[in-house]
Each structure stands twice: as structure tokens, then as C-alpha cells.
Amino acid sequence: MPKARKQFGTADDIEVALYDAIGRADLDALMALWADDEEIVCIHPDGTRLIGYAAIRASWEEIFTRGGVHIRPTQLHVSQNTMNAVHNLIETVNTTDAQRDIHIIATNVYVKTPLGWRIVLHHASIAPGKPRPELTTPSSTVLH
Hints:
Layout (H helix, E strand, L loop, with lengths): L10 H14 L2 H5 L9 E3 L5 E3 L1 H12 L6 E10 L3 E10 L8 E12 L2 E11 L18
Parallel strand pairs: 1-6
Antiparallel strand pairs: 1-2, 3-4, 4-5, 5-6
């Protein structure tokens, strides 16, 4: 009988669990966050697009042979309704050489299922240069 999976109350909760599992190289914890759907998609920064549970699991298993990936998510932008959430953020990947830290633009898409929130898409692309400060429009600015 399959192990019961934890339910996540919000998309934010599952995103915290996602980066925690990646940092600990915990493949089982990471894969438990994905939806039970063969249409799930993971696009790694190298551009490889993976579709389906088996392909995604195999890719993370390979990544975790080198240990956890220490990612600090920042500049989160959220678009959400009662059943879907889209998180766009900057991932700062910390390397052992501080001169080589890189940042990645990532989009995580979550859906609310009977088992709680689950990830259905993780798309990550390496961004050139250093991350720009978050651009915001002051609330007093009038456009047109």
C-alpha cells in the first residue's frame, strides 16, 4: 500500500517543502510533492524538458548524486485563484565558490487536488548577469 502523502494547506507551504527537499537531496520527499498525473512537466536550466513522473524522478536522482542543491528563492511574484497558483521567482543557487553563484528565473505551477496542493510544472532558466533588484510601481503612480 502506498505511503500516505502529506497534505499542504497552501501553495506557499508546498513551495517551502520543494526547496527544502532539493536542499537536502531528498528524492522521495521531492517526488511526493508532485501531482499524481503523467502530464507533469519539469524543465531544468539546461533546457531539458521532462514529462511524466518517471522521467522527472530519474533526472532529480541524477542531480542528487552530487548532493543537495542549495537554492535561496527571492523576488516571488504570485498569481493565484482557489485551484491554481503560479509562482515566478528568482532562484539564487549557492556554490562553494562565491564568485560562481548563479541565479535562475523559475516558474512553479501548483494545483489544488483532493490530496492538497501539488506541483505540476517547474520551469527553470539560467539568467545572465546578476539579478536586478525587484522593480515595483509605487502605489501613488498613475499610469495614463
